[in-house]
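seq as requested:
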Amino acid sequence: MEQLPRLSAAAAGRVAAIAARQGKPGLMLRLAVDGGGCAGFQYRFGLEAAPGADDVAIEAHGVTMVVDPDSLPFLAGAEVDYVEKIGAAAFEVRNPNAASGCGCGSSFSV
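struct tokens:
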């Protein structure tokens, strides 16, 4: 089996904070890869109350991230982090499978 993507402590903390603010403990972060974006593929993030039937659940730092089986090959060995920079804060994917990316950081090519 390929290496599963990882969730950093900062990303897990952000998901937990969102869940607490919404009064929905146990919310999960969904990470998916879709065709499109300026580099060929793009990351899609969302929050889920429960995993789908075929989802792979990855638990880290008290939070669960779910990934659909079609996205897994593109995310093998990747790490999801939450980064705060001057003027912006966002989830960021460090993906060793990405041959190149775009300036916005939300799309990549393999």
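The first strand starts at residue 6 and ends at 7.
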